[in-house]
Request: fold
Amino acid sequence: MTQLTRQQELESLLCAFHLPAFQAHYAGFARQAEKERIDHVGYLYQLAKTESDGRYQRRTERLLRESRLPKGKHLGDFQLARFPHISPSLVHEVAEGTCLDRQENILIFGNPGTGKTHLSISLAREWCLRGRRVFYTTAAMLVQDLLAAKRDLRLNQFLRRLDRVEVILIDDISYIPKDRDEGDVLFMLLAECYERRSIALTSNLAFSDWNQIFKDQMTTMAAIDRLVHHSVILELNGPSWRAEEAKKKQQRQKTKGSENGSESSDDN
Reply:
């Protein structure tokens, strides 16, 4: 077998074994190993590490794409110091994702503008980076999808598709359904997920106001009971971050206008 034939056979085998990084880099790494006198173990390690890194990147990109998470929300950008009552170690422990192994729920409450959506999406992004399957949706969109599936007699099929994910992130469950059917399908989903996969959700409404969502006391109590049984609750009590930012922007504009006026006076 000639050198060219062996090379072609090797590349064919690497392709069959689904080792694209080996296929792309084996020749270049071999030249580098010969030049730098790296032994065969070091050469193989370099190839294997490159293959591993490539697989991690491709898997992470796929998980983030399939999660449907909005872009631009990162845990490092969340101003946790605004909430001194929340332990940073607890937030980082939740971000590690071991709570998902125990099918625990992550419930984030707070007034509008306090950063509930930012924190929940940031945590979900961290889970994706750790190889977890996440599905993001708003409460309003989820309810409409459930109703459409029920109408088309494919609700069980819709729920089975969710079996593939480890955590469902429902943003803004303070959305108030217009009729009982909407609350019923939402409760059906929560009941289906109980002790089978994690639910992460955000809400402006305290539990005492959840009768606005499920319409009757029995269903409300049953929904809360299932969510709280295994859960981590994060309360973002504080002023609106968006309102604070708007106020700071307005103040900067006033200061800039004052400085510009002062400069004009000096020129005169």
